[in-house]
Specification:
Elements lengths: L8 H15 L22 E2 L12 E7 L3 E11 L2 E8 L6 E9 L2 H6 L3 E2 L2 E2 L6 E4 L8 E6 L1 H4 L5 E10 L4 E5 L1 E4 L2 E4 L14 E4 L10 E5 L14 E9 L3 E10 L5 E9 L3 E5 L3 E5 L2 E7 L2 H4 L18 E9 L12 E7 L9 E5 L12 E3 L5 E3 L1 E4 L12 H4 L33
Parallel strand pairs: 1-8
Antiparallel strand pairs: 2-3, 2-11, 3-4, 4-9, 5-8, 5-10, 6-7, 10-11, 10-14, 12-13, 15-16, 15-27, 16-17, 17-22, 18-21, 18-23, 19-22, 20-21, 23-24, 25-26
Length: about 425
């Protein structure tokens, strides 16, 4: 369970301090607890101990890449009661951790001033935390605990430099990566300066909080009166976190009540975007990027035939997606309209990708035109894609949205943007709470 910082963190610090007193060596570089607990000082290096750590669930995972394009494992990060838990996992058969070096920093300039960079890139031997193993140790997983007293000096968001030397002679770094035909490619936006390929990654303490749903999107996917107006053909929830370095967008495909195949995508202006990672696909379209999150929603949340819209069918897991966009000072951010999501609908199935139409959210700027609306049998016009500014209970399969939300109006009658504030009859909605959605 994700846990926020609390006063009980002090107890954890003393517990960790006690374990280090018992288990670690007494070398000059070893981290020794002071009267106030573990309090590393800038410029010092500390030998991490041989402790067994019951780390909390990870709330961030990046790749552990060796030789620039070989996926050797992953690096998981968790945060609980003030302490940061960084776990190295190597899952290549016969390959083990020989040495790790770990540090936090707020800027490249800061890292350079601390003499932790040279002309060829970072100097892992100068990082604050390190650990070495004998040849026969065969360690494939290790959790380093960075105490609250050290973490607190870097604020709510910081960069993590996670280096490893492996038993096969390769050097590995933790960072965002994408799979390619030639292995993996690392996030070039967070490569250390100099003649090297070493990378780092950003972590924010808020990443370990339960996400706040910033937007929910829902669609009717047909273009004519055949729509049943239940607005559950696809339901996507989204959470956004922006820092100076990144725009982190999480998506959750919660429900799918459609017979057609879909692809869920979004458009974002290219200016100020340095790189886009973890997307299914990225293409340049004019002066914008078209980012694919779920290439095929039928495969992402399969059902029989629907998912999380028919109560009798039970519950389906849904699908998670996260896109990380590295940005610079030229990036323009509007929290009310951070990107433009849309549904690509395939008329005759996913095997005919040239036959499709795109449905944007009607209420977002530039989208309120007939190409994003449909006409009912009574001649009234309705939006295909709708925006709900919070989490919501979507209608069950075949239930007209106006049965559950009586303030929902047609475009013809004058669109009411606040219709979702009034859930007038919960019986016509899917019990997503019972499914833990």
């Amino acid at each position: 369970m994700k846990t926020l910082k609390s006063k009980s963190g002090l107890l954890s610090l003393f517990a960790i301090a006690f374990s280090i007193v018992i288990l670690q060596s007494c070398s000059d570089e070893a981290l020794k607890p002071s009267k106030s607990g573990l309090t590393p000082l800038n410029g010092q290096k500390y030998e991490l101990p041989d402790y067994d750590v019951d780390a909390p669930p990870a709330c961030k995972e990046v790749c552990l890449v060796a030789g620039q394009n070989m996926l050797a494992g992953n690096v998981e990060v968790a945060y609980s009661e003030g302490n940061l838990y960084v776990t190295y996992n190597v899952y290549q058969e016969g390959v083990y951790l020989k040495e790790i070096h770990l540090d936090l920093f707020n800027s490249i300039e800061e890292f350079d001033e601390a003499k932790k960079l040279n002309g060829g890139g970072p100097s892992p031997g100068k990082f604050a935390f390190k650990k070495k193993w004998d040849d026969n140790a065969m360690v494939s997983s290790y959790t380093a605990v960075i105490p609250e007293s050290y973490v607190d000096t870097y604020g709510d968001c910081f960069f993590v430099a996670a280096h490893a030397a492996l038993s096969n002679g390769e050097t590995a770094w933790g960072g965002l990566c994408d799979e390619t035909d030639k292995g993996v490619t690392l996030d070039a936006a967070k490569q250390f300066p100099g003649a090297n390929w070493a990378v780092y990654f950003e972590f924010c303490l808020d990443e370990c909080e339960d996400p706040t749903i910033d937007f929910t999107y829902a669609w009717e996917d047909l273009l004519d009166f055949a729509n049943d107006a239940d607005y559950n053909d696809l339901v996507i929830r989204s959470d956004i976190m922006k820092t100076d370095a990144e725009l982190k967008i999480t998506f959750f495909a919660a429900a799918r009540g459609a017979s057609l195949d879909h692809s869920f995508r979004f458009m974002i202006p290219a200016e100020g975007v340095v790189s886009i990672m973890n997307a299914a696909d990225v293409q340049m379209v004019g002066d914008q990027y078209m980012v694919t999150v779920f290439e095929n929603t039928t495969l992402a949340i399969p059902g029989t035939p629907f998912a999380n819209t028919v109560p009798a069918d039970g519950c389906y897991a849904g699908a998670n997606g996260m896109v990380t966009i590295s940005i610079d000072e030229d990036f323009s951010f509007d929290p009310a309209n951070p990107y433009n999501p849309f549904l690509r609908v395939y008329n005759w199935g996913i095997d005919t990708p040239d036959v499709f139409y795109d449905l944007y959210i009607y209420e977002l700027p530039g989208n309120n035109h007939p190409g994003n609306s449909w006409i009912a049998t009574d001649g009234k016009e309705y939006p295909n894609g709708i925006l709900i500014p919070f989490d919501w209970r979507w209608p069950s399969e075949g239930s007209n949205i106006m049965l559950a939300y009586e303030d929902f109006t047609s475009i013809t009658d004058g669109w009411n943007p606040n219709w979702s504030d009034n859930l007038s009859d919960i019986l016509f909605t899917f019990d997503r709470d019972a499914c833990g959605l």
